[in-house]
Design a protein that fits this description.
By secondary structure, the protein is an alpha/beta fold. Helix content is 56%, strand content 6%.
Length: 957
């Protein structure tokens, strides 16, 4: 529990109403909750006119008037928190006044951290209690003036005024990310004036998330100094501690008596069914009694476990058998097991060992695709797993070997919380410890191998040949399965199979490094007897991901003239029947099996998938047909009426997209697949807020581009597409709040685009792309508080757009781009305090918007641009004290907003614009002391906003 004081405060004096610790509520809570570490942050935020506080410092003048900008202060505090081990346990912040802004910046900086050292401080934050914190709900410049009544002039106060725009951005960030991360937010505001000033009113105290701020009968200072342990702020802190910081694994959540808090993460995820995913079980399971008993014992005890051994020895089958004994196959047996919150099966072969898609899938299965949808995949998985008594079964652990860009297994599993458990299936003994491991180093015992072969062949093999085959198979479960299914069909002579095997002098199956050569020979032998249609069906399945695939995919790959041959069992039922017959033939050889979803199939073993897959030189016709099918499938899946079918189906389709593009070695799938994925699919997913799926889509296209030959990759058009892709990746990072990574992506995109634009100044499209890159860089720098850097980037963009607009004055889109650049520059200049420069920039923008709006009065977007420009000008005029000019500008904005809403009363955004215009007019009238007029304007604004709030109660904006 961390207490953070505000301007003029102190680590101890801020929180106590008397002179000693017996009057300090941090001390009360520390005594009441001995299991909680209670900290109070002390930092230089001292004003120059508060002698009582100045007297606390040993050096009377050291901290007077000093303070750091919020990002610097947050970096300093986070460094200290990391040194003290913060982030390992759940956190509650209690913050007073401007300390709340410090807290929000701490959380944002921790969330943006790319090193992984600070992010746990954000991901482990459970709740924040704001006491009289001035968020962005009111004019921060006015707040600075109100603070000055109490504290006098300080550097920190002037910084507050100067960075008004940055603080508004911080307000938006917290509003979005606190809710997404499940951070519980409670707020109080004062109702009594201090020295004639009420610093934080209900509007400015609203953080934009959680329920409405609660009034306290205190002034700005005493609100942080409760006199009794039973006062409201103390009770709220206790409830936040009990319900969200100290909550047991499966708590019955309570609501604080003084506030109705948002539901916790666990409650959000309850709408998703408890997952009950067991590994695929073997058709028949023989032997392994000792290993089965050991694994079952560990799982029944609720302990981590691992099954280690070479490929094909039955790790998955053993895990399936043991888990069935422990968790059963019904919701009732699962609830009574050590893992009542679910069992997840995570196949790393599907993800090629990459962490991001694995984390995203884990979060989706536990909490649904909408859970923390705008957060990075790691954060989503961490929060979805937190506190759950669940088991994650990891298939193919060796894929996460930390080599060639793949994840390291320890990093991959870092999202699990102490209450989670794992069952790791891997070939690498280095990924686990002996005490947790069940090792499969030996083949099946001879009698068990014989029983398995007999069950598969149904006794059709003569005894002498059977013994020869068993000797060759060496008790290897996968080889027994493939050979048994091959012999069971009766179209392969057991004698011929044994003779050819002996003639080939194949490596022993007991040799872990060479066994795959023999298994591939046996796979090819199984495939040899397939008809042409079945072979093409198998090849098509290999081009998709190692995940269940639908019948429609194979039907499309075979094409209308796919035909059927005698081996496939010709059925006159159309393309789907032909595809089904072909798949049935492959299933009979033990290479495929039916999946749980209707009309879906999957490979029985990863080696079968890898032997069937051909990433170089695959059939171009099959690839093209699969590309066309997948294009239509994704388009249909993203339709509004199809999304309800389930986000996991959409995720699986994107996995197939990535796999198919990886196999497109000659880059023939730009149309219709890669192009559609980069623009249409990614755009649609962005609109839906499914940023994790956007990342999957963009990563698939990026991997496709990385396989370009060097000469092709340097072609101008492809370099432009690469720049666009990188910019889109930056957009996702920015939406997730990772400003540092977003800035790096935008700069990379700019480096690719700049030489193209400079080499061909006549290419207007490339010039515009370059201007967009500069703008995006400016946006991130502005959000980071680097206003000088943002201004330089915006001016680079402006120069490009001026040339475009001058070259073709009739191009309305370029004229609008130019006006947007002027507005961005005006925003930065205003934030820097250069009101004259800001006003000039806004008027340049207004002039362009006015011409556009007059040229096409029916264009609602341009009309709205005109209204916004008028409001910006009004804001600056008000800052300059020109209230009459400001009122005129606001009234012009109101006229436009009123016309728009009258034309389309159902447009909520325009209704909100109208309410804002009324509110701004009210502000000016209040400044002019026309209280009657101000009240009328505010009532107009309220009349517009009330139906908006009623229509969408979940909208915190």
């Amino acid at each position: 529990m961390v207490f953070i004081h505000g301007l003029g405060g102190d680590a101890f004096e801020t929180w106590r109403h008397g002179k000693d610790d017996s009057t300090s509520w941090p001390h009360w809570l520390a005594q009441e909750f001995p299991e909680v570490c209670v900290w109070s942050l002390g930092y230089a935020a001292s004003p120059s006119k508060w002698p009582r506080v100045l007297g606390l410092f040993s050096d009377r003048w050291r901290d007077a008037g000093h303070g750091l900008p919020l990002p610097d202060r947050a970096a300093e505090v986070l460094n200290r928190m990391r040194q003290k081990g913060f982030g390992r346990r759940p956190l509650l912040f209690v913050c007073h006044s401007l300390g709340g802004l410090v807290t929000k910046q701490i959380l944002r900086t921790a969330s943006d951290d790319t090193t992984g050292r600070l992010k746990p401080i954000f991901s482990n934050t459970r709740a924040v209690l704001f006491l009289a914190t001035p968020h962005a709900g009111a004019d921060l410049a006015e707040l600075a003036d109100a603070f000055r009544v109490i504290f006098g002039t300080t550097v920190t106060l002037e910084d507050l005024r100067a960075h008004d725009a940055a603080l508004r951005n911080l307000y938006k960030w917290y509003r979005q990310h606190a809710k997404a991360a499940g951070i519980q937010t409670a707020s109080y505001f004062e109702t009594r004036a201090y020295r004639g000033a009420t610093i934080v009113d209900p509007t400015s105290a609203d953080p934009g998330v959680g329920d409405d701020p609660v009034p306290a009968e205190e002034n700005h200072l005493t609100i942080a100094k409760p006199r009794e342990p039973g006062e409201a702020v103390c009770d709220t802190a206790r409830d936040l501690l009990r319900d969200y910081v100290l909550a047991p694994d499966s708590p019955s959540r309570r609501t604080a008596p003084s506030l109705k808090l948002e539901h916790p993460i666990a409650a959000t995820a309850r709408s998703v069914p408890i997952p009950h995913e067991l590994p695929p079980k073997a058709h028949e399971f023989f032997g392994r009694e000792t290993e089965l008993a050991n694994l079952t014992k560990r799982l029944r005890a609720g302990e981590d476990a691992a099954v280690v051994g070479p490929a094909g020895l039955g790790k998955t089958a053993l895990a399936a058998k043991a888990l069935l004994a422990v968790v059963g196959d019904t919701p009732e047996t699962l609830a009574a097991s050590p893992f009542p919150d679910g069992v997840i099966f995570l196949d790393l072969y599907t993800f090629h060992g990459e962490a991001e898609p694995a984390w995203g899938t884990l979060a989706n299965k536990l909490a649904g695709a909408a859970f923390m949808e705008r957060s990075p995949a790691r954060d989503r998985a961490t929060e979805a797993c937190r506190g759950r008594r669940l088991l994650v079964v990891i298939e193919g652990g060796e894929e996460a070997d930390g080599i060639s860009g793949r994840a390291d297994i320890n990093d991959l599993l870092s999202v699990l919380s102490p209450q989670n458990h794992r069952l790791l299936l891997t070939r690498l003994s280095t990924q686990t410890v002996p005490a947790e491991s069940v090792e499969l180093r030996e083949a099946l015992a001879p009698e068990d191998a014989a029983r398995l072969l007999d069950s598969l062949t149904q006794g059709r093999v003569m005894a002498d040949v059977r013994d020869r085959v068993l000797a060759l198979l060496e008790g290897h479960p996968l080889a027994l399965t493939w050979a048994g299914n091959l012999l069971a069909r009766g179209d392969e002579s057991p004698q011929q199979l044994a003779g050819d095997w002996e003639h080939e002098s194949l490596p022993s199956l007991s040799h872990p490094m060479q066994a795959q050569h023999t298994l591939k020979w046996l796979f090819n032998r199984s495939v040899r007897g397939l008809g042409d249609t079945a072979r093409r069906a198998l090849a098509a399945a290999g081009l998709l991901a190692r995940a269940p695939f639908p019948l429609a995919a194979i039907s499309a790959a075979l094409g209308a003239s796919g035909g059927a041959d005698e081996d496939d069992g010709d059925e006159d039922g159309g393309d789907e029947d032909i595809a089904r017959a072909a798949l049935k033939s492959v299933v009979q050889r033990g290479l495929l099996r039916l999946a749980e979803a209707p009309d879906h199939w999957e490979f029985t073993h990863v080696l079968g998938y890898r032997f069937a897959r051909n990433e170089s030189g695959s059939d171009a016709v099959i690839r093209e047909r699969l590309g066309g099918w997948l294009h239509g499938h994704l388009t249909k899946s993203l339709a509004a009426d199809a999304l309800a079918e389930g986000p996991l189906l959409l995720t699986r389709a994107l996995e197939h997209l990535a796999a198919l593009l990886r196999a497109d070695d000659d880059q023939s799938l730009w149309n219709p697949l890669a192009n559609t994925a980069l623009y249409d699919i990614a755009d649609r997913l962005t609109d839906l807020g499914r940023l994790g799926l956007v990342t999957l889509t963009l990563d698939a296209v990026a991997a496709w581009m990385e396989r370009f030959p060097a000469g092709k990759a340097e072609e101008p058009d492809w370099r432009r597409e690469r720049s666009t892709l990188t910019g889109f990746q930056g957009d996702v990072l920015l939406a997730q709040g990772d400003l540092t990574a977003a800035l790096a992506a935008y700069r990379e995109s700019l480096q690719v685009m700049r030489p193209l634009a400079e080499a061909d100044p006549s290419n207007a499209g490339w010039q515009r792309d370059l201007s967009v890159s500069h703008n995006k860089i400016g946006d991130v720098l502005r959000d980071q508080g680097d206003l000088s850097g943002a201004l330089a980037a915006y001016r680079e963009s402006l120069q490009l757009r001026q040339r475009l607009a001058e070259a073709d004055p009739s191009n309305a889109a370029w004229q609008r781009d130019l006006s947007v650049s002027h507005n961005k520059i005006g925003d930065v200049l205003r934030a820097q305090g250069d009101l004259t420069g800001a006003l000039a920039a806004y008027r340049e923008s207004l002039g362009i918007f006015r011409r556009l709006a007059e040229a096409d009065a029916s264009n609602a977007a341009w009309q709205r641009d005109l209204s916004v420009s008028q409001e910006r000008i009004g804001d600056v005029l008000r800052d300059q004290g020109d209230l009459s000019g400001a009122l005129t500008a606001y009234q012009k904005a109101l006229e436009v907003a009123r016309r728009l809403t009258e034309a389309d009363p159902s447009n909520a955004a325009w209704q909100r614009d109208l309410s804002v215009s009324h509110s701004k007019i009210g502000d000016v009238l209040r400044d002019q002391r026309d209280l009657s007029g101000a009240l009328a304007a505010y009532r107009e604004s309220l009349q517009v906003r009330r139906p908006l709030a009623k229509a969408d109660p979940s909208n915190a904006g």
